[in-house]
Amino acid sequence: MSTHVIVGAGGTGAATARLLAERGDRVRLVTRKGTGPAHPLIDLVRLDALDTEALAELTEGAAALYNAAMPDYTRWPELLPPLYASILLAAEHTGVPYVMLGNLYAYGPSEAPLTEDTPLNPVSVKGRVRADVWRAALDAHRAGRVRVAEVRSGQFLGPGAVSSFSLLAQPKVLAGRLALIDGEPDVPHSYTSTVDAAHALIAVAGSTDDADWGRAWHAPAISATPRELATRLAALTGSPEPRLEALTEREMELLAVSVPFFGELPEMAYMSHKPLHVDATAIEKRFGLRAEDVDEVLRSGL
């Protein structure tokens, strides 16, 4: 029985823990509150991952260390770099293979489909933070201090997903009310099931091929418009035909007064107002992973 250490019990972290436990591996799931899914093989560990020494002690001898941590979205520049630096150091100290859960922010705008070879060209604060933590991990890999890879996902759907669609669209669709979203309803984007992202993390972490490390992988992607997803969701739940409209900048400013999350959306507008396509053929060819059926993903996220 192998032991795996996962930092973060959000949608993907929890899904990764469940998948590993269901196949018979033991999991140490690390969060500041000690929360996560209940399973005999999942040990819920209350620990602040900023405590590098304690995290390294917990990780010693593990098969892999997974970073699925997600600090407060409104405080990324302040919170994310030191947290990721601590997790990286724990991986270096123990020599355990290290897999990061990332996203698409660091690429910047692109009219062509994004591949893992697309240069990082962030145009936002959050994008620069994401690019910086990946480059720091990659430098450590190239220096021989750690074996690292990153799995990059699109906007999350499915169990435990926290995303613009799950927060802004889904509740309104289910209630039969107008959904105001941070983007154009009929512009296609790339979405990722939390479970598909978990499968990708596990596949990469289990690789013994050097060529699979020191690089990024795109998790399996679902290409759809917000309206298409909302329409499928309504059909699955017997809800009224969905109504979606894009939030204006002024509306977001007003909403941000009471809900700071909305103040974080304008800088990422380039991702939600223009088509964003992800090429995930690399992970399909290497590990045989494909995106789950969109109806099943939406159903599992209810």
Supply database-style keywords.
302 residues; 3-stranded mixed beta sheet; 12 strands; Rossmann fold; Epimerase_deHydtase
Description:
The structure is a single chain. The chain has 302 residues and is α/β, with parallel strands linked by helices. It has a domain at 3-154 and 193-219: Rossmann fold. Helix content is 39%, strand content 17%. The chain is built from eleven helices and twelve strands. A seven-stranded parallel sheet has the order 3-2-1-4-5-6-10, sandwiched between helices. Strands 7-9-11 form a three-stranded mixed sheet. Strands 8-12 form a two-stranded parallel ribbon. Strand 1, helix 1 and strand 2 (26-31) form a beta-alpha-beta unit. Helix 7 packs across helix 11 (294-300). It starts with a strand and ends with a helix. The mean pLDDT is 97. This is NAD-dependent epimerase. It comes from Actinorhabdospora filicis. InterPro entries: Epimerase_deHydtase (IPR001509), NAD(P)-bd_dom_sf (IPR036291). It holds the Pfam family Epimerase. Residues 6-205 form the NAD-dependent epimerase/dehydratase domain.
